[in-house]
Write a structure and sequence with these properties.
Length: about 325
């Protein structure tokens, strides 16, 4: 079983966990496809993907195509004679690629498909206040995250867990699920099912589109728990953003940790309450949001007490723009 020839495709740390699991479980990885090296960071130095760094350390053959339809790349991939492709956190594959291996092309997705198809399933699930998510393996087809499901595993989302925390847990569960999926496929005990089987009558799948800067702005007109979930879903990256209005200045800041507080008040959403030393809470619909950890634009991230030592926010308010 473990002699089947596998080509692994991935880029991020999330993908590294699965590649490492394949190797540790004795599977025959005969090639790795990852993103080309590109400039990164403030110095714009050329950087390799996390998957490439791990593949080099593991002495695996590496391919880094700019264009997945490039005939030289597709011919080279064909000559590897892989039995199956495994894809984790990579680009959308053209049909000429995903149809190539005889056992098909498997994708690992960080949600319970068919819900949260798209680029940001972890963030969107928390932002929407979900308490359950998971990982899914499925056969790739000609659309994004719509192929027949092989296996799913549900995972609880904890109330104060952020997207980074959940990412790390799902990464480990996903790596194990790929192993179970491969074993089941080779043994012939897995029956692929269309995603419609996992939907209730009339139910529409929730989507997880890519997150853009404009999606990160906090709306202080929402309920405390809604804003709290929004902040968790964007932490630690890219971060939920707002603006402090102090006189004529409008300074942007990000919130990374918060505590919702329900209650009635007559304050305008965005109004700041603080003793100037120990706490900051911001009025919103039907309550307040206590700010526990934040970062002013151009400054280091800090907790509220540290922030208040060097910043006065008396007689100020926040806004979404």
């Amino acid at each position: 079983m473990k002699n089947i020839r596998i080509v692994f495709m991935g880029t991020s740390e999330f993908a590294v966990a699965t590649l490492g699991s394949l190797l540790m479980n004795g599977f025959n990885v005969v090639g790795v496809v990852t993103a080309p090296d590109k400039p990164a960071g403030r110095g714009r130095k050329i950087a390799k993907s996390a998957v490439k760094a791990f593949a080099e350390y593991s002495s695996l053959p590496i391919m880094q195509p700019e264009n997945l339809k490039d005939p030289f790349f597709t011919d080279s991939l064909q000559k590897i004679n892989a039995d199956i492709f495994i894809v984790v956190a990579f680009r959308m594959l053209p049909e000429v690629i995903w149809k190539m291996p005889p056992l098909g092309t498997i994708n690992l997705h960080a949600s319970l498909l068919p819900h949260y198809r798209g680029a940001a399933p972890i963030n969107r699930a928390i932002m929407n206040g979900e308490t359950l998510t998971g990982v899914t393996t499925f056969f790739i087809d000609d659309k994004i995250d719509t192929g027949k499901i092989l296996m799913r595993e549900g995972i609880q989302i904890f109330p104060f867990e952020n997207a980074g925390d959940l990412h790390d847990r799902l990464m480990k569960h996903g790596a194990r699920l790929i192993i179970r999926t491969l074993e089941g496929l080779v043994q012939g005990i897995i029956v692929p099912h269309p995603q419609s089987k996992f939907l209730k009558p009339g139910e529409i799948p929730k989507e997880a589109p890519k997150i853009f800067p404009e999606d990160c702005l906090i709306d202080w007109n929402n309920e405390p728990v809604t804003i709290h979930n929004f902040i968790r879903g964007l932490a630690p990256y890219p971060g939920a953003k707002s603006f402090i209005k102090t006189g004529a200045e409008n300074i942007s800041f990000k919130v990374f940790e918060s505590l919702p507080e329900n209650g009635t008040h007559m304050l305008k959403p965005g109004f700041i309450i603080s003793d100037g030393k120990h706490f900051i809470k911001i009025a919103c619909k039907n309550g307040f949001l206590n700010i526990l950890n934040l970062q002013l634009e151009g400054k280091n991230r800090m907790n509220t007490v540290e922030f208040l030592r060097g910043n006065s926010i008396l007689n100020s308010s926040v806004s979404s723009s």
